[in-house]
Predict the 3D structure of the following.
Amino acid sequence: MNIYVWRHNKTYHSYSMIEEPCINNDFYLDALAIVAANTFDEALEVLAEENKGWRTDDLRELACRVYPADKAGVIFTELRGAIHHL
């Protein structure tokens, strides 16, 4: 079993990035999908079965991170609005 993580940020999206994948049918600035599955294809199937607008063809084009579920590791951390120089 693996954990598949896709994240796509369109906050600063512009026309020059028109070829970039759009991974969900809803308007979004930051999209995150985390799925536990045995294979990459199974992870995409699970997302599609949710019927929440995930576009699996575009997700195939976007690099995802894969974490083995049988060993310890950090999967996700996030700091928003951090000012690193203070």
Q: What stands out?
A: The two ends are 41 Å apart (CA to CA). The CA atoms of residues 10 and 29 lie 5 Å apart. The beta strands are 2-9, 30-37, 65-68. The first helix runs from residue 40 to 49.
